[in-house]
Amino acid sequence: MWGGATAALLSMNFRLVWMGPDDDPQAANQALSSALSLQSSRAVAPYAQRGPEMVRQEKLQGGRLKITPVANFHACIVCDILIDDGEQERREFGIEAVVGETRLAFFVSAAEFGRMSWVASRLGPQAILYPGQQQHARAAIQWLSGQVRQERIFSYTGWKKHGTQWMYLHAGGALGADGLIPGIQVRLPDALQAFEIGLPQDSDDRGRNVKASLRVLQVAPDRISFPLLAGVYRAALGGTTFSLFLEGRSGVFKTTLAALCQQHFGVALDATRLPANFASTANALESLAFHAKDALLVADDFAPTGLEGDRGLHGLAERLFRAAGNQQGRSRLSNGGRPSAAKPPRALVLATGEDVPKGQSIRARLLIIDVTPGEVDCATLTECQEAAQQGQLAAAMGSFLRWVAGRHDSVQQRLRARVQEIRNQGRGRSIHARLPGATAELEASFEIFLEFALEIGAIGKVERDELLQRCPLALNELVARQAQYHQASDPAARFLGLLRAALAGGRAHVSSRDGKVPDDPAAWGWHRKSAGRPWVPQGARIGWLAVPDLYLEPAASYEVAQQMAGSERLPITEQKLRHRLREQDLLASVDSARHVLLVRRTLEGRPRQVLHLRARDL
Is 73 helix (H, G, I), strand (E, B) or coil? Predict the structure, then answer.
């Protein structure tokens, strides 16, 4: 690799005058002055290799040549690499260097190369840049490298157009309609190195693999297995705006189910080698979800403890799921002070946890699949795990991706049209506006997968029709179960629940309209030691009762609710809470004339502005 530079140096017809620490430069130059003057008209390369070192060459007046060492090693750039993440490109150089008798090869970023900060860390303490020669050493490496080959390396999975055809990138290269596409290089982050799609050996093997994938539907009840398998193939089609969340206590096989889904994207991605977990930082999770484009990404073990430290865990989950649902990432400043491109999640995230992240807006971006003890068929689960270890699930995905690659544009058009058609049916709209779209995405993509399975002969029409009937029924059941999670996270419903707890626990009370004991005082936060003794109010007064109406003092009731919530405080302001109460039809009246939610009432003999609720709602 160094022969060209060395040969060029030795082919010169004049002798080099070396100015080293032990030489007498003046004597040497005088001895050779006549020889060098003969070469005065010849051009001199600014940098050269001299033995183990790189040197700088300068022609002095009179034709003399001055040689200055810049480094005690030599190196060259052997490849110029463009790292393509699908949004922007960054440059790396492949470097080969020789220090003494040691030859090294490594990669450095273009920015790092320019700073020459890599010399000590990559070459070790024996490599020396002579004082004042740092940038000359950089220039010498570039000069001596000659013609450098350029390469493009993709750092993400998923669909990419290659000429007029579509290909799917994965750790093993690229899949097209005809199989592996040669010459495509993919280098994924370490945690995604096992994302390697398989390929069947023949058409019979292809059918067996797809049947093994469909076998996953028998591992658990339909409301669990159908959304999981549909999610696997929906992920491969790209562009999702929701996440899946497997919820259940320890020991119900959540992680094992998630691993079966993940192994459709790589044999090695079993329960012990899942790519992500909630012990990682938010930046790390976002980065993995960005690079795992058009793939399923399992984030395992969301396990809050109920202690103060859970705030960071909930914040991490909120950031991940909100970014995935909104398809937005966080822009950051580069070292040069310029904003870098945002990197939104491009994977379909499948998370597991013993509890569901809090917050109505976050849960709205999740399809929560609850698993209870005894629901997973362990014998079938073992069969599916064996098939996954044999590569059948990854090969089923490989066959599906090849099939899609041959008709990518039409599949995407049909997916969008079918999603719109199903979404218009409004499944789950009464629970949250995002639900119809998420379930429509799953149903439409599962229909496309069944079309593929039918076309390759893995299933017949009767089985296809049966699965088409079971899928929407399973999703309907899943949607019905979402209500409990959305109601539990709704701030308005939680506010009333906290007030009920405060009244029952002696932390607050409600008076009559004139400030005295109300009807049914025990239900409204009043207490007496024994029969015949007077009723005594407990805690802070939060309102007044005039059946059927209840008037809440807004600031006092909000503060009591927050105190009752403890570390899990209501995530909205008092003003926003009023609007949520109105949205949930929990306000009996508002002041429409003044366009405000508080109404004016005379209570305990003076005018007040209060929230008007129905007593029965509290």
Answer: coil
Give all strands (DSSP E) within 463-555, no chain letters.
508-512, 526-527, 536-537, 540-546, 549-552
- Tell me the pLDDT tens digit for each residue of 560-618: 999 988 867 888 899 999 998 998 889 999 999 998 999 999 999 999 999 999 999 88
**Stretch (H or E) spanning 147:** none
The residues that bridge with 167 in the sheet, in sequence order, are 160
Residues near 2 by beta carbon (within 8 Å), at least 6 away in sequence? 49, 74, 76, 98
d(CA 292, CA 410): 23
Q: How far is CA 424 from the centre of its chain?
A: 29
Closest by CA position to 357, among listed 225, 233, 246: 246
Q: Which residues pair with 349 in a beta bridge?
A: 297
Facing residues of 545 across strands?
512, 550
Comma-separated ranges of CATH 3.40.50 domains in the chain: 203-332+340-489
Helix (H) or strand (E) holding 90: strand 89-99
Dihedral sign from CA coordinates of 273, 276, 281, 283: positive
Assign 502 to helix, strand or coil.
Answer: helix
Per-residue pLDDT reduced to its tens digit, 221-261:
999 999 999 999 999 999 999 999 999 999 999 999 999 99
DSSP-based three-state secondary structure for 57: strand
Q: What is the CATH number of domain 203-332+340-489?
A: 3.40.50
- Please say whether the beta carbons of 207 and 194 come within 8 A: no
- Amino acid, res. 511: S
Residue 183 neighbours by CB distance under 10 Å: 9
Q: Is the bond leading into 548 cis (omega within 30 degrees of zero)?
A: yes
